[in-house]
Automatic annotation (TrEMBL):
SUPFAM superfamilies: MTH938-like
InterPro entries: MTH938-like_sf (IPR036748), NDUFAF3/AAMDC (IPR007523)
One Gene Ontology term from the biological process aspect of the record: mitochondrial respiratory chain complex I assembly
Name of the protein this chain belongs to: Alkaline phosphatase
GO cellular component, one term: mitochondrial inner membrane
Domain of life: Eukaryota
Pfam families: DUF498
Organism field: Fusarium tjaetaba
Length: 227
């Protein structure tokens, strides 16, 4: 009787069989689609709702009418220096023969004022010149170096010197301009009213240590004075 021979599978074949048996079945396409749909749907809904909120306009009742005119503009709110206190040396009044300052000081008698670093000085440049004529033959405002001698003693000096030359503006003599430039200061020359207003603005904005003013009374008459 012939014996039936049994062939034992090799180890490689056993590994393949075990892998085939243990491999899980892939999920159907329907299951994957449903899972993906359930995961993405909340995000898409949130994105849609956020876009709707972004474009939403404020509701208005049917009986509510739009305003006929825009609200009035409060210019006080636009003044960036409105809450900044004015310097004590700011000029409140330009008088015929002097000035009234914010500190309550009044300068009269035809004197000019020199406003430097929060201090007030009587300014009589005609005495430094030895003449009441402050305008040269070319119609230019001309002063000697002694008229600005105070700035030789001051350090640091202001960045800007505003000169008020009286009731009307006139050019500054080149020699006087060169003298002030050598002191390291910029120059702005105006009639006295505008020079005082410019000093008030810039001294409030930049500080009294950076801006100085030299002002002649508005009643000044060349060769006569303001008395």
């Amino acid at each position: 009787m012939s014996s039936r021979s049994l062939i034992r599978p090799c180890s490689a074949q056993r590994a393949v069989c075990q892998a085939l048996v243990q491999t899980p079945r892939p999920r159907s396409a329907t299951t994957v689609f449903r899972a993906t749909t359930s995961t993405v749907s909340p995000h898409s809904q949130a994105s849609t709702s956020s876009r709707r909120l972004f474009h939403t306009l404020p509701s208005r009742r049917k009986d509510q009418q739009p305003p006929a005119h825009p609200p009035p503009t409060d210019f006080a709110e636009l003044d960036v220096l409105g809450n900044t206190p004015a310097p004590s040396t700011s000029v409140d009044v330009c008088m015929y023969d002097g000035f009234g300052l914010n500190s309550g000081i009044t300068v009269t008698g035809g004197n000019g004022v020199l406003l430097v670093d929060g201090e007030v000085f009587n300014w009589r440049p005609w005495e430094a010149k030895g003449s009441m004529n402050l305008v040269n033959k070319k119609g230019q405002f001309e002063l000697p170096p002694k008229a600005f001698a105070l700035f030789d003693l001051l350090w640091p000096r202001p960045d800007l010197l505003i000169i008020g030359v009286g009731p009307s503006i006139m050019p500054l003599a080149p020699e006087t301009r060169r003298l002030i430039s050598e002191l390291g200061m910029q120059i702005e020359i105006l009639d006295t009213r505008n020079a005082a207003a410019q000093f008030n603005l810039l001294a409030t904005e930049r500080g009294v240590s950076n801006v100085a003013a030299a002002l002649i009374p508005i009643g000044w008459k060349d060769g006569v004075g303001a008395e």
